[in-house]
Amino acid sequence: MREKSIFYNLTDENENATTELLCNLCHFDEYKEIIFDTLGLKDFSIIFEDIITQKQISKGKKPDVEIKNDNVRVFIENKIKKGYNLLKSQTKVYPEELNKAPQKNKKMIYLVPENHFCVEMIKKLQKKYGFIELIYWEELINALEEYNEKKRSEIITESINYFTKVLEMIPKTKFSEEDISLMKDIEKLCEVNKTMAKTAELFFNVAEKLRKDLKIKSFHYEPNLVCEKDAFGYYFNKANCFLGYSFVLFDNEKLEGRDFVLSLALNKDSVNSKKIGDFHDQTFYNDGWYYFKIGQYIYDSDVLYKRCKEIMEEWL
Prior knowledge:
alpha+beta; 6-stranded antiparallel beta sheet
């Protein structure tokens, strides 16, 4: 089936294509301002024609991006996966090349995911050279999302979707104050399709990433949405895991009215039997399910993902 994307069949999902798209966005002044501001280049005088990709600066050495004019020289090294290593040329040759450059304004920018395993190495380079910048892809995508909330651009929407997919990030779900208010009443939530769809999207995206990242054999079914008077969320499969809001009581906690708790529920048959004695007041057992409290109301997919991942890695 043809995907609804202006980039469908036009770009590969790899590092080079990601670099080219990022640079092409700089053709538009509004988008260039967002990108340069995030990369720490807003005070540099740069025009679109100064931006070059994959140009050889010495034998076999080609930075992903070079920005060059009489007063500016910048290298950008882009990494889209946490396990993609930085080569010697990228951590030694490029900084040394910039160190010798006559331009007044220069930077060596490493654009990487937050969990990239070379982050500490880059931080050490920052101590050695005063022009090293460590920028996270998450920062850049957040900046594009903030712009998009105000001005709504289909090009930026499609670009965010592309970057998010290639970097294997969890898509963000935006909640309004009205959405958040409705989420505090499960009966009203199930009656309001717009808010329910956003909440379902949040749970689905987190569940899907957990299912893929943890590679647990029991997660072989597509997530299944349930919306009932005492539960709203996703089953990861037909029997073993549920992520969502449940009307359950944890020890020393009294829920008033229709309040409910965001929790990850694991079927007793899927829990590591050796861990059973370690349960504490942040867990609740009911009718064959162990409920692990995550919090009352969480709207950030990254926070939700990290908490669920910690629980599942420890207890499954």
